[in-house]
Amino acid sequence: MTPRVHLSEHVPAEVEQALAASFEIVPSVTEADGVVAMLTVTVDDAYLEAAGPQLKIVANYAVGVNNIDLDAARRRGIVVSNTPDVLTGATAEIALTLMLSLLRRVTEGDRFVRRQEPWQFSLEFMLGERLAGKTVLIVGSGRIGRETARLVEAFGAVPVLAGRDADLDALLGEADIVSLHVPLNAETRHLIDARRLQLMKSSAVLINTARGPVVDEAALAEALQRGTIAGAGLDVYEREPEVTESLLGLENVVLAPHLGSATRDTRVAMGMLCVDALRAVLLEGRTPANAVT
Ligand code: DGY
Fold first, then answer.
1. Is 87 in the pocket of ligand 1 (CB under 6 A)?
2. What amino acid positions are annotated as catalytic residues?
3. I want to staple 293 with a disulfide (CB 3.0 to 4.6 A). Which of 80, 135, 186, 264 is the partner?
4. Which range of residues forms the domain containing residue 148?
5. Pairing, β 79-81 against β 34-37
6. Is residue 161 located within the same domain as residue 29?
């Protein structure tokens, strides 16, 4: 019998075709041997219980697996896979984009031009800062953190990679830019809170392309309003897609709608990793290379 796969959301056509070549696509997880889950779906005990004992694999269409209760999956012998490597470059590029947009005031300038405010070139108009020469603290030394370090170095900045054992409190005070690249888990929830924002230089900016709850967003909004830090570039939010309202009116904040992996090639490559994992488990009876349980 052809194994059955449920898609929690629409996937790119190339990915759907690849899935349809090996599996029967079914409308409900209760009929599925495997599921392709988006990061917006909470796969917890209740979800897995409702899915039923036939479910063998959850292929998460993301590298971050914070939407999945891994212990609940393990208890049931369900394989969970993710999509590492293929989105590393795209996500690091978004971190760099947020840094440059913020430092060079690009989105602020864009809003200014669209308002059709009167202006002409002048020597001290809307001056920003160069990335070159800045100390960039990269919090998280995994693939995306290391790639971001490589990119900022190419722009003449000095990356400082802070892994798990780093003394974050000590490093925060030295950085001009703090860029977050850690997975969301119990240890990293509110890693950047009011106390740590206070440790940053008042001229420093915070970049978050990891997961929203890594930052206490209310504390960040307050720090930005008070001038505790100079700016923020955010691709992710604590209660995504909701954004703390006071952030919306701040010129020194660049906001993106979770675009880290948002290029067509990247999203197709992520989907193909899901297809490979489903094939490994459901057709070949083996553990996929990108299994996280
Ligand atoms: C991920 O993969 O975890 C990104 O946040 C979305 O692609």
1. yes
2. 211, 240, 258
3. 80
4. 88-255
5. unpaired
6. no
